[in-house]
Amino acid sequence: MENSKNIYEFGRVTEGDASMRALLGGKGANLAEMAKIGLPVPPGFTITTEVCNKYYSNKNSLPTEVWNEIKKSVTKLEEQQGKKFGDKKNPLLFSVRSGARESMPGMMDTILNLGLNDETVEGHAEKTGNPRFAYDCYRRFIQMYGDVVLGIKAKDEHSIDPFESALNTAKQNANVKEDTELSAEDLKNLIRKYKEIVRKYSSKEFPQDVFDQLHGAISAVFESWNNDRAIIYRRKYNIPSEWGTAVNVQCMVFGNMGETSATGVAFTRNPATGEKIFYGEYLINAQGEDVVAGIRTPNPIGNLSTDMPDVFAQLNQVCQTLESHFNDMQDFEFTVENSKLYMLQTRNGKRTGLAAIRIAVEMVQEGLINKETAIKRIPADSVSSLLVPIFDSDTKKEISSIASGLPAGPGAASGNVYFSAKKAEEMHANGESVILCRIETSPEDIRGMLASEGILTSHGGVSSHAALVARQMGKVCVCGAGKLGIDYASKTITVGNVVIHEGDAISIDGSTGEIFVGKLKTAPSEVNQVLQGTLDAKKSYTYKLFDTIMSWADESRKLGIRTNADSPRQAKLAFQLGAEGVGLCRTEHMFFEEDRIDHMREMILADTTEGREKALSKLEPLQQSDFEGLFREMRGYPVTIRLLDPPLHEFLPNEENAINTLSKKLGVTPERMKLRVSSLKEANPMLGHRGCRLGITYPEITRMQARAIFKAAANVIRSGTQVDVEVMVPLTAFAKELKNQTDIIHSVAQEVISSTGIQIKYKVGTMIELPRACLCADEIAKEAQFFSFGTNDLTQTCLGMSRDDVNSFLPKYFDLEIIKTNPFASIEPGGVGALIKLACEKGRSVRENIKLGICGEHGGDPASIKLCHQYGLSYVSCSPNRIPIARLAAAQAALS
Amino acid sequence: MENSKNIYEFGRVTEGDASMRALLGGKGANLAEMAKIGLPVPPGFTITTEVCNKYYSNKNSLPTEVWNEIKKSVTKLEEQQGKKFGDKKNPLLFSVRSGARESMPGMMDTILNLGLNDETVEGHAEKTGNPRFAYDCYRRFIQMYGDVVLGIKAKDEHSIDPFESALNTAKQNANVKEDTELSAEDLKNLIRKYKEIVRKYSSKEFPQDVFDQLHGAISAVFESWNNDRAIIYRRKYNIPSEWGTAVNVQCMVFGNMGETSATGVAFTRNPATGEKIFYGEYLINAQGEDVVAGIRTPNPIGNLSTDMPDVFAQLNQVCQTLESHFNDMQDFEFTVENSKLYMLQTRNGKRTGLAAIRIAVEMVQEGLINKETAIKRIPADSVSSLLVPIFDSDTKKEISSIASGLPAGPGAASGNVYFSAKKAEEMHANGESVILCRIETSPEDIRGMLASEGILTSHGGVSSHAALVARQMGKVCVCGAGKLGIDYASKTITVGNVVIHEGDAISIDGSTGEIFVGKLKTAPSEVNQVLQGTLDAKKSYTYKLFDTIMSWADESRKLGIRTNADSPRQAKLAFQLGAEGVGLCRTEHMFFEEDRIDHMREMILADTTEGREKALSKLEPLQQSDFEGLFREMRGYPVTIRLLDPPLHEFLPNEENAINTLSKKLGVTPERMKLRVSSLKEANPMLGHRGCRLGITYPEITRMQARAIFKAAANVIRSGTQVDVEVMVPLTAFAKELKNQTDIIHSVAQEVISSTGIQIKYKVGTMIELPRACLCADEIAKEAQFFSFGTNDLTQTCLGMSRDDVNSFLPKYFDLEIIKTNPFASIEPGGVGALIKLACEKGRSVRENIKLGICGEHGGDPASIKLCHQYGLSYVSCSPNRIPIARLAAAQAALS
């Protein structure tokens, strides 16, 4: 629905509030909110996100009526401020900033000091009595406008943009290091240079009409919604392109008016660790972009207590106000103009997974939020940050770090070092672990950062682009390690007499900021150490956080959580991490081990049922012993064992040599072996002779597996441990297929029960992984005591996409936004989800209390878990390491 | 629902009628009906098909209460006939025959002369005054009982069964040729031998208790419902195993009482050609099985007018009665006992496709049935018998036949001759065309007959097993060619001094009975000759039949019929056969031709869009000219053109040599070529980079094809022929994929329309061939002006079965009755059909009048056409030769 109002004021008169972020964007809504609660916000107005859509549907152009309204709003501000936009004497200046519904840091564009031209700059100088400052504002304005509106940029990542280059020349000429040291005259000359650059690159004069400037800037912000960086970001975070961005036009305040002015970025808590301390950084005599861009390394916020004690005290107060008002950790920007504090932005701070958990848990303890809010606020995936390996503490004692920087993204990362985003991406695609090392990062580096294990910079502070993005991506990051001499040309890092070359291995500890040469040995996370009994729970605050959040999640969730485990070892780990059973044991994985594969091959090569039975009889005791291990580790929780699934040719060797060796071993001719290998080759093995089709054509396989299962169960029960067996038939399409297999399984079960005299609790069910199985789930439910959705195969068949082959077109699909999420990562709701939903309904229509689960990779994906909750499944099953994520995601699904 | 009555009487008292075939089986119901309309039927009773199910659910045993009822019914018959079952003086004898709901000729078992034992045979001899006859009956009874009940059979197809062997010895000892020549004493000795055989093979004495005999015989008939032959037959004709068989117990009448007795089989019209003549054969002094078994070649029915003129006149009268009562061609069995006629069975006669059409058409002309009945009565597939090639008449004049037999299955067949069913099956599997040559066929030969092009026998008449089965299967058959010396041992046929060896090519004309050495040249069918203008329509009665039935079908059907055609030639043929448009033109087939494949390969090997466009520009005029041909042949009817569908690697060579040749031709290194070939290889190409995924990643392909289509359309319109274009996008899963492609197609269409100034009528639609497309058909219908169901791919994905790989397990599935019909031949209704139905509903919910069609092989399958009619599709599309079948099947669907 369209809103008729295009523009909302804030400051003196405030029309919006925090609840209106869809319309005003996050920045606009929070500026309004801060103004409402009495924080010092320079006045301005927000052009709504709906205008963004109008802009695009009006052929990428501002509709005339909107422009007229903007001009009216400017007039109001002129009246309020007693200044005039474009006035030679007393000019009103604006910042123009984007502000989408969800914050997209560094993705969108900003313009400061708008309204300056050759004439107004003089008025600005006169009015402020500070010509140097005025010219600094003007040259900044030209530079930003040139970049953002006129598209004058560096040609590639190795070149410097022409404005920066001119600035450097000016500093050289003046023989100074910092741009703050340039004189008014230097700056006037620089402005001339800048205008020449504009003429040369855009074939136009720099616009002197301030309304032209404003029109261009607003349009450019709207255009920036569809630049490459924004699109990539939106794709990664699933932000719909229809949301659009708002534009905030705000009266300028100046952090660059001299030594009593400053600008900074701060957090109400540490966004990397979650610790409750005032955290951030600032620059004296600077404008906002200087801090974020990482060009100058800013001062830690603590220093402000000596530089500007009053402002520091006021900021501490602001922290408390913001947290108690927004009930969440805030990330805010401020400017001090001649010792007066202004708030320019606040938002819920991006944070690392670790910080998200710590802040949520501690805020509950502080009474700021309740448990449910805490659970909802932690991205489920972030729990994994508590489980990733850390550097081994003994090793760290032996090898000393060569340098250190700011710990901006906690965790341990090792990899080969590369100096450009492109190269990092390339080597990652080649299978290398990569550490991206840059002097500073910029939005153009996003893809390379995504491809890296860790990010290392020599410039920029904890709110630099590198730090910000790394935190959000959950990447390990050390930034502002000033001791590193990074040279792009020679592709080296030099620290003292240590020289690290491109491709060399390094390790970075994002929790401490340390940098090491070589790949450091890692140790299990603290949580794993506690679970494994090698660390006292009381000594690990991380474990306490983990345990707290898991117990809260378990209170809320409705879904059961099981694990996919093919060995007792995996089952044990999963049990420690909270698994309530095994949802999928892929029995074929047991066949791949060294001593077993040859028996399997013998079975496949046999010509007769007897020959197959002979080979199977060798596998049986091995399988049985694995099953016993699984049952013991699961201590009476259900264990779902899937019968042999993959096509048989997967077990046979392909290469000449391997065939010869095997043929000798099994006493068949290589020719016969080759013949058999090639006779088992299939055009589309995914749709071939596999799943229950194997058990139906070779019932002796099913009999062997069933016998191993039930004999194992009997043994374990005899030794005093409860067992809950679920035998699962794969790839059922027809109820009669299942009937064929369940008949065998039940009869073997009865044999074992009567021969051992031990009662075994068991169910027989099936994978639901073909569209027909979903469509005919009512018929199948008559035979099946449980369903487990095999979403991988279901995705392949429902979408007609082989997981092994999609990479030839899926990247293009993402580019074109044909699909937004990899359907093999997250359940595709329109087709695959619809089939699951239908199968649940049909299954229940026949067997009211049928157990419904999901195994396969989707079982550990939060978005898919949410769907599973909605479909009313009984449980999800995932790999052991994703169990904690699944527990949290299940709680979130229940609370949403 | 179970019927409480287990037994129905017929004869003196008649409880059933023709409408009760589900319960009484075809034979039982029609015996009752004949009795009701006054035809001479020996009395008896029918045990219902429900008892068959009771038998199986009672652990393969007759329930006691049923047995008691049977004994009561025997008592009633004893009272009616004044004889007593098992009586030494005046014994009552029975035949026991199976009788299923649908006639299954030769599949089930029959026992005659039941009630004879060492004592009753003497009474039978005395009462009939004919000891020779009595002993003949007894030895026949032992032989049949031994075979059917006790399972004493020949070991394999090359051995003779022990009874037959003993019979031969007896004939040799008596120095006679025919068994009718054996004396009473000879037969008495033979009976002794027979009883020894029973003792030896079954380790039991031949049962002397007549009730034991009856109990055994009834049980054996029920058992025969599940013998291999019956199961194979049911599978072929889709008869559910739950139907069961009835058992008919009937008082014996004897065709073997001497020269005034006879037995025969006759048809009210010729079942091979449909001609309205009394047709059949008989044997004097024989029992029923002798005729059908083909051991003695019987006399043509016409001879009966001299042998038994009264009976012949009476039979002619029976023919008229039966046809006017049953309104269909009847196949009946009769026995003449001492000049008195008895009717033992009547049923709707099996007939060839040609006969089915002729009979149906002529019965309408005779006023016996209406057009709708005629249409419903012709198996749709049988129309194809009017279209298959015939032997070229000129060639037949040059080459004279070496022998001739009875024309029992019309058509022309050439192939290599084999002498056993097993070998025929084997060589067929090797890809050979096979003619199965047997002295006589038996039910064991069914699989081999199915595998053969034609069947040739030296023994047996037009109602022999060979003739019967060939007619029903639509196989070419020449039987009873007595001049052929067939020797199984040396595997030869000798005719005069011509010797034909196993594997030699022969030709048989089932319309004339002629047999030729070598493969004869064939000519188009008469229908095709008329359609092609090389034969005057008035001179061909076959064409007249074809034309009549097609015009009746067109009056009734609701579905449109289109063709799959990839070339103008195919389109022309289809148009002649009645196609109302092209439902599928697979454009890639055009690329495989000699002069084009290299351009295609050049396109695939290109690295850049420009390189691809260059190669495509060479293909464009070639495609355009094909499309022009299609449009011209279709004369304004819609032509659906599918864009490139298969994965690109299908176009590249695989073999070393071919790669080298091609690499020279295209000027790339063989290494690069190999690299590209292997980079295009996919794990599961069916689920890979194909369909619209190609057009999305390489939009220049779509642009080229669209341009060729619209430019062709413009040219044809310019020349004065109307054109109705439908551009079809393959393998859509997501609406946005389709949007991507339709945008390109519409923009190319507009370009061509504005550059040529010619208005082109066109639609853009999509294949629906993935489960997701069905589930999201509402979204897709927003973009698609029509849907065409690609049931082949839909079957593959819905069932998770690759058509190229199913043969490894599908035969087993048929054996186990997990599925009954090949899902690639007939739409699988539970999954695939359900998806189609859903997609139709969803498509119409968004676009009420959306055109819905089906292309792919299922479009020519009558069962699938029926489903398509039910789902309310607009049309079906099939290969040109199946168009007439589809027209008829569509009419049948509309009438059912």
Question: How many helical stretches of chain A?
Answer: 36
Radius of gyration of chain A over all CA atoms, rounded? 32 Å
Number of strands of chain A: 33
The two chains with the largest interface, and their residue counts, are: A-B, 49 and 49 residues
Structural class of chain A: alpha/beta
**What general form of chain A does the structure show?**
elongated
Side by side, the strands of the main sheet of chain A go: 14-24-23-16-17-18-19-15
- Multimerization state: homodimer
Distance between the termini of chain A: 25 Å
Q: How much helicity do the residues of chain A have?
A: 40-55%
Q: Identify low-pLDDT runs of chain A.
A: none
User: Taking all residues together, what is the mean pLDDT of chain A?
Assistant: 92
The portion of residues forming beta strands of chain A comes to: 15-25%
The main β sheet of chain A shows up as: 8 strands, mixed
Question: Can you lay out the helices and strands and say which pair or pack?
Answer:
The structure is a homodimer of 896-residue chains.
Chain A: E1 7-10, H1 21-36, E2 44-47, H2 49-57, H3 64-81, E3 84-85, E4 91-92, E5 94-100, E6 110-114, H4 120-128, H5 131-148, H6 162-174, H7 184-202, H8 210-224, H9 228-236, E7 245-251, E8 262-267, E9 279-284, H10 288-293, E10 299-300, H11 304-307, H12 309-326, E11 330-337, E12 340-348, H13 353-365, H14 371-377, E13 390-391, H15 393-398, E14 403-404, E15 406-409, E16 412-418, H16 421-429, E17 434-438, H17 446-450, E18 454-457, H18 465-473, E19 476-479, E20 485-487, E21 492-495, E22 498-501, E23 505-509, E24 514-517, E25 522-523, H19 526-531, H20 541-556, E26 560-564, H21 568-576, E27 582-586, H22 587-591, H23 594-605, H24 609-634, E28 638-642, H25 656-666, H26 670-680, H27 692-697, H28 699-718, E29 724-729, H29 735-756, E30 761-768, H30 771-775, H31 777-783, E31 786-790, H32 791-799, H33 810-815, H34 829-846, E32 851-855, H35 862-871, E33 875-878, H36 883-895
Parallel strand pairs in A: 3-4, 16-17, 17-18, 18-19, 26-27, 26-33, 27-28, 28-29, 29-30, 30-31, 31-32, 32-33
Antiparallel strand pairs in A: 1-2, 2-7, 5-6, 5-7, 8-9, 8-11, 9-10, 11-12, 13-25, 14-24, 15-19, 16-23, 20-21, 21-22, 23-24
Helix pairs in contact in A: 4-5, 5-7, 6-7, 13-14, 13-20, 14-20, 20-36, 21-24, 23-24, 24-28, 28-29, 29-31, 31-34, 35-36
